């Protein structure tokens, strides 16, 4: 069989490749006071692919109710990496949706995998580039580190007529490394939008400026740093991207 990487490089954007809608279900700030905000992120793509679940199930469900999300229409869950603020809402979801496919990295802990299976998840381990749904992919596991410990992570890629959109959880492997990886997986395709956690909150000003410059060099059109990106990174990216900077908040909907 032809490897997926090779097959994708032959595809070009066609008229059929429509736009997709991203709904921010959870983030550190929200559009209004009726929505819960906190640590972790959760993004819903086209009402059917859920990327991360925030820190707490109760809050995720409250936001889904406020935002008119039908839980029964969610087809797939992707968990970026094995940190509590990204899988916190998973258990309540599984209680309601037994047998749900949950995409994780092979390096998630045994403890997590056992609990997820016991809770009724149908686990899929993404070692490499994997198609999740029509025009939605996982990068596969990318090695990274968090406070000196190994921490693998996956991001998702949406392929629309505008180009590629990459959604990240915390970007522990490094946000630049993730974008480079996607560019390598989809050679020649433009990167339209990168959003999510960029994990630059512990980086100094110069390192953040270099990251923003690298985004420009890689021709990333729009940037939406949030969660663990840090307020300094949000300011620097905003200055660098001006009108193409997207401020991410729970409750927001975006077309990509
Ligand atoms: Zn995080
Ligand atoms: Zn993390």
Overall pLDDT score: 94
CATH fold-level name: Metallo-beta-lactamase, Chain A
- What sequence of helices (H) and strands (E) makes up the elements? HEEEHEHHEHEEEEEEEHEHEHE
Number of helices: 8
Model description:
This protein is an alpha/beta fold and 256 residues long. It contains 8 helices and 15 strands. The protein has a single domain, classed as 4-Layer Sandwich (Metallo-beta-lactamase, Chain A). The strands form 3 sheets. The protein has a 7-stranded mixed beta sheet with strand order 6-5-4-3-2-1-15. A 6-stranded mixed beta sheet has the order 7-8-11-12-13-14. It has a two-stranded antiparallel ribbon with strand order 9-10. A hairpin with a 2-residue loop joins strand 9 (145-146) and strand 10 (149-150). Helix 7 runs parallel beside helix 8. The two termini are 31 Å apart.
